[in-house]
Amino acid sequence: MSNTAYNTKPKESSSSTEYTCNVLPVNIDFTGTLSTTTKFWNAQLAKDEEKNQSVNYLRGRRLVGTHHENFGGNDPDTSTHSLKVFKKGETDFQKDTNTFEVVGECPTLVNYGHENVPGSDDCVERLNEWFELSRCIHDDDD
């Protein structure tokens, strides 16, 4: 059985790297890496600030997304939760241990749906409810 170790302290050179997490309504059964390309992804073609939405196109399909700022409590002043981006480090085969290092954070999460904004029963909305429940249970504020 392998063990996994997470180094949650980012390296000095990547401590300020911020990413946007895009949750797409697709099922992809691929775990490899791809080179960065804009061939099929035209990011933020239209953005509606009033509704906190953006419209993108993936392979010709219209995707409408909702922006979640500080998703999961990424605000370091008010929460212990955060979305981090990890990179797999060196594997110690003698100890059978995998290591991962933080390369950045995701202060913004964009949840997309086909042609419409994702519904209230969406997995990201349910995850947000779990974060709220966790805050209610574990916060010391009375």
From TrEMBL:
GO biological process per UniProt: RNA catabolic process
The organism's place on the tree of life at top rank: Eukaryota
Matches recorded under InterPro entries: RNase_H2_suC
A GO cellular component annotation in the UniProt record: ribonuclease H2 complex
Alphabetized Gene3D superfamilies for the sequence: 2.40.128.680
UniProt protein name: Unnamed protein product
Organism annotation: Ambrosiozyma monospora (Yeast)
